[in-house]
Structure formats: structure tokens, C-alpha cells
Amino acid sequence: IIADKEISAALSEIRWEDGYVYLNKLVSLFTKNGQGIIIVTSFITLFGLFYVIKKYSKNVLFSIYLFIFFYYYFITFNLVRQYLAIGVLMFAYDQMIKRNFIKYVLLVLAAASFHQLAILLLPLYFLYGIRLNIKKLLIITLSFSLIIILIDKVMALGFELFPMYTMYFNTKYMQEGGMLTTVISGAVSLFALFIKLTSDTDEEYDFLMVLVLMSLLSSALSMKITLFNRLTYYFNIYYILFIPKALSLVKDVRLRSVYYMTIISTTFIYFNVRFLENWHRVVPYTLYINNYFR
User: Fold this and answer.
1) In a structure prediction context, what are the per-residue pLDDT tens digits for the chain, which is 294 residues long?
2) Helices 80-97 & 229-236 angle (0-180, nearest 10)
3) Selection from 62, 88, 37 nearest residue 261 by Cα
4) Distance from C-alpha of 206 to C-alpha of 193, rounded to nearest angstrom
5) How far is CA 219 from CA 57, 129, 163, 216, in A?
6) Whole-angstrom Cα distance, residue 147 to residue 170?
7) Are 78 and 280 spatial neighbours (Cβ–Cβ below 8 Å)?
8) Which residues of 240-279 are buried (b: 16+ CB within 10 A; e: fewer)?
């Protein structure tokens, strides 16, 4: 559709963010085949994720395992714009660690040009370096509780800031969601708290723990309004860095092995539950190249 339109017409007629429209138009200059944009977006998404895994994960192979068995890889098949933004945000994470504010802002803005919600991650830059303690964790808990209580006002503010999401009024996205994601988020949050209280953590751990807690909040909100799952995806993707980081802090080798086996078995079950219910409708999946052999 975009390939056959003038860019000005495409920007005004299509509800997608401007950056994604421009990317589609750019790809269409080289190929009119719809698979072209899929290849480009997949490359950016996976390159960003694997870049940050290779650079910051304490266990690269385990991070890749988590990326697959937390079902994130399969979600990329459907939430193309959001995971394209997440791929860009991985480079922003790198710049945040390096404390390069300008590059961080530019990358977050680039991500937001593909998926508006990415702009909400802009303030995270200022959270890095804050050390967590019991008092701060209590403040976070009280703040989260208040947000849950004031959910209706939060939603009203959200639609005011992001009017494009009003299209979801009276759809399934405004209905109550399931609790499985929240159960997983709760389990990861409890594990994060346990490691925090029993190990010598650093500022990177504390920052990732904040993201874990944010994923718990947004997933809890999604139990009331499914649309909040979109926000959850921006936070729970960091499980692929956080869990290996947390496990690396466990000094007892046998205990660490137990944790590994528990997490592997739990995520394996989780993956199969999601796969069998065809979450995000990823099956049946047919490789495009198969069309040439029919």
C-alpha cells in the first residue's frame, strides 16, 4: 500500500507512526515484495537484541534460551513495530550504560518513531545508578499500589497522551486479560528481591530490578485492561539480561544449578502452554520460500 502512495499521502492516511511509514517507503524503493520490510525489521530487531545480549549478558546462551522460551521471539512475528522499537532501544540501553545522554535520547526518539509508547522509556536514563534499599522498595510498592487504585485516571491520562490508542475503545484490548504473564512477572520479581537481600548487587542489577518491578506493575494492570500488555513488553524483555545477571551473583554452585534447572523447567512449561494456546497466532507458520516449491 505504502509503495504505491506518495509519502505525504501515506503519512496522512495510514495510522502507523511516521518512522515506520518512512522505513516502508525506503524499502519499497528496492523491492515491492512485502517480505522486504519483514526482512529489514527482523534484522534490526534481532541485531539490537543480540548486540546487547553479547555485550551485557552474563550467560549469552542462556539469554538466547530465555528470549525463545519466554516466547519473545514468536511475539516478534506479530508485534513488528513494537519489537522494531525494542530492537532500537537495546542500543539506547548501551548508551545509557555508557552515560551518553544525547545518543540515548536520539535512540529513544528513533524507537518512538516506530512505536509511540517507546517514548515512555526516556526517563529511565535518570534511574540508572540509583541504589535500591528497603526504604526505596517500599516507596516503589506504595507507588505501584496507588497506580493500580487509580487505574481509571491513569487510562484517561494515557489516552490523552497517546490518542492513537483510542481506536482500541470497545475492543477486546479493553477487556480483562489473563493472569499467566502476571504470575511469571511476580515470580521473577520475588526472585529479584531474594537475590537483592542475599547478595552483593551493583547498580546495573538495581536498574534491571526496577525494570522487572515495572513489568510486574504493567502486567498486573493488564489483568484489568489487556492493552497494558503492550507496556509490559517494553520491560519484561530485560528478563533476558536480568536473570543471568541474578544467577551470576549466587556463589553456591549447587544452589545456582538448582536455580538454573528450576528456571529452565518453568520456562519450558510456560513456552509449551503459550504455544499450545497459539498465543499471538504464530501457527501454522509457513516459510515464504516454500511458495517456490509448491
Assistant:
1) 566 666 666 666 677 788 998 898 899 888 888 889 999 999 999 999 999 999 999 999 999 999 999 999 999 999 999 999 999 999 999 999 999 999 999 999 999 999 999 999 999 999 999 999 989 999 988 888 888 788 788 778 877 877 777 776 667 767 777 799 999 999 999 999 999 999 999 999 999 999 999 999 999 988 888 888 889 999 999 999 999 999 999 999 999 999 999 999 999 999 999 999 988 787 777 666 555 545
2) 40
3) 62
4) 10
5) 24, 25, 21, 5
6) 23
7) yes
8) bbbbbbbbebbeeeeeeeebbeebeeebeebbeebeeeeb
Extract the C-alpha cell encoding 247.
544467577
Q: Cell for 120? A: 515512555
Q: Which residues of 204-230 are buried (b: 16+ CB within 10 A; e: fewer)?
A: ebbbbbbbbbbbbbbbbbbbbbbbbbb
Burial class of 202 by CB neighbour count within 10 A (0 to 12, 13 to 18, 19+): exposed
Amino acid at 207: F
For residues 242 and 196, is the Cβ–Cβ distance under 8 A? no
